[in-house]
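writing this on my phone so excuse typos. first protein, seq and then structure
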Amino acid sequence: MTTKTTDLVERSVTILPEITKWRRHFHQFPELSFQEKATSETIVQILRSFDVYTIETEVGGYGVVATLTTGEGPVIGLRADMDALPIYEQTELSFGSKHPGVMHACGHDAHIAILLGGAKLLAEDAKNGLFKGTVKLIFQPAEENCDVLGETGAIKMLGSGTLDDVEAVLALHMCPWLKTGELQVHDGPSMANNDDFHLIVKGNGGHGGYPHHTNDPVWMSTYLLQALYSLNGRRVNPLEVGTISVGQIHAGEANNVIPSLVEIQGTVRSYKNEVRELLVKEIEGAARVVTALGGDFELTVHHGEPALVNDPAINNVIRKVADGMKVINEPFGMGSEDFSHMTARISGAMFFLGCGLEEERSLHHPRFDIDEEALSDGVAIIVKSVYQLLEA
């Protein structure tokens, strides 16, 4: 059966007011990672109104998986993340967050709305017998944070077994540095491995007026910091992608007391596993400068998301169905994305959807916002891609 896709762009534009209404609702009522109860309930209510989906709830937390089967064929997954960030909104939008200190500042409200728009069009086409196969809509909790086990929502949903039959999976991310009508796609590693490190530099503190009676960990840390920063340009091949950044330094409680401990925390980003392993090894080597100065250290590394690796064949489908849009073929940067856990197990790809306003509103910024005209672009691309993948 050949799927009819010629009117999907027009139909996506037609339902734009509905998609926009959904996006604005989710924007007003954001919920943090592992707390997306009301968000999940609203999603289920909307999905049930389409009257074709088998719906599973509480998948990996408050995750929702809606399945539509119209006959034998491949199983295609579409994923949207649901959680918000601990940010005080400063947009002055009429539909701004009603939960102080919580904001959809990364576009997840738009991701949900786009997937619901896709669900609506898929439901209409299924009732008209226009395609064969299975589509699973994956509304994922907790992309922005992990639990005490170090697991994000993607890990938990994969662990539930609900996605074991998915053969290809697709996701999008709102992109404020591109304009509406533009798309960013990249084959292979496209977002970074994400590792956090915590260094404790140990010395012997004492009176600030008698530093010669102490073994000053602050002094030792100045050498350690120089060693850490030198790793970026001297240990990693300049043709590879890898960087170390220090985000926190904590020491002492008084200006006339030399502390006994200094804590240094930061992040390590890379595209390749070899570089990931090298940087962690080099951090430990750099820390040994402390022992040469008479101190000691403890190093703890938490391994977060792996690099997002996009399947070139699925990207080619996205490029094909985005006919008429400007496609930029570049990596997405050194951010991380837990969709990478899914693409590590299932052939998949994420694309970045242009939605930029005249004044760019950066991701994770308290003034983040999007051009809502881009929502219909997202719906058309994901549904067209599903049909191409089902036929492939």
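second protein below, same order as before
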Amino acid sequence: MDSTTMVLVLALGNLALCSMLFFFDYGAPRAPALASWGLSKQVQAAAWILLALGGARVVPEPLALPGGWALLIGGVALESAALWETAHRRRLQRAMVPLALGAVFIFLVSYWIDPLGLRTLAAALILGAFYLLGAAALARGWHRASMLQRALAVVTALLALLVAARGILVLVMPDGWRWLSHDLLRQLSTIAFYLLMLVNGFGWLLLARERLQADLARLETLDLVTEAPNRRGFFNALAPWMALARRPGSPTALVVLDLDSFKRVNEGYGHPAGDVVLRHVADLCKRQLRDSDLLGRLVGGEFALLLPRTGAEEAMLVAERMRAAIEATPVKTERALISMTASFGVTTIRPDDSNVTLFGRAGAAMRAAKEAGRNAIRLAPRETVPEA
């Protein structure tokens, strides 16, 4: 396949990616990074079309070649900027614009000095550098990244080095070396561009889908009002501590708290005010916890606290701090200043516990606190069998 055909394939491939992106999540709001990436593919498609038209003598070479390569440099820089935006490094993202303008200027000067040698050297090194910057964005947070993201970072970096190698070899070996001719280098570089188009194009779409699935999985275990684990998320986190309770070691405490008269808040002030109360209480409770502790919202105004390596007496002190903080800190809503209290039930995980017996015991202690006048704390008796 000759170079003109390969350039045409690159042009059509980028256009196909643009059309796929247009229909990807059609009608849904687009993230800024996705919009920037789509624009980069459009610019790259225009660049390859211009280069293909120049190779086919449809557009004069003095216009097609510098214009096409300048557009390609800008498009790859935009792609790198979109990757840095996805990596939440806005400073590096914004730096891509002046870098791209400077790179285009250097390329045009090189083209004016030497339309063949320096042009090839500048284009290969500049494009390889921008692709490497994109690979660095993909590699950021390597230990937390998925295998797909890691693979994309490695493959992009290798192909970027292959693109840059053409410019380096032209510089150090102007006449080629044995079988490694300039024509072969050009073909290998074009193949690298083709693979980069496929890897970055389909890789981006797969990454977007992977992140969407991860967000959906996270939402299944997260309470959106308080941003604490919901019932399912809390039980998932509790499971390993239930297993550890069967072995000798430090105790693990469970605290169940229920906001007193929370129903009247929703009925009297509306559910938006109730959500404000829930967020306020969750924030107060989190301030009293260690990094290893966990707060979860079970249902309505009921929360649960998991306190690893904590005995009953220590858990009572934690509950008392929370009770006092909730009582002393009214909640400011749009309609009123609402005073709240909470009742607490405290227990520790036993070796023979199940979720039913554990929460039954803590719930019974919490109901005893309510029967004692609310705004109180009760410790579940050790010798009694809890009601389910």
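The domain at 231-379 is CATH 3.30.70.270 (Alpha-Beta Plaits). thats all i got for now
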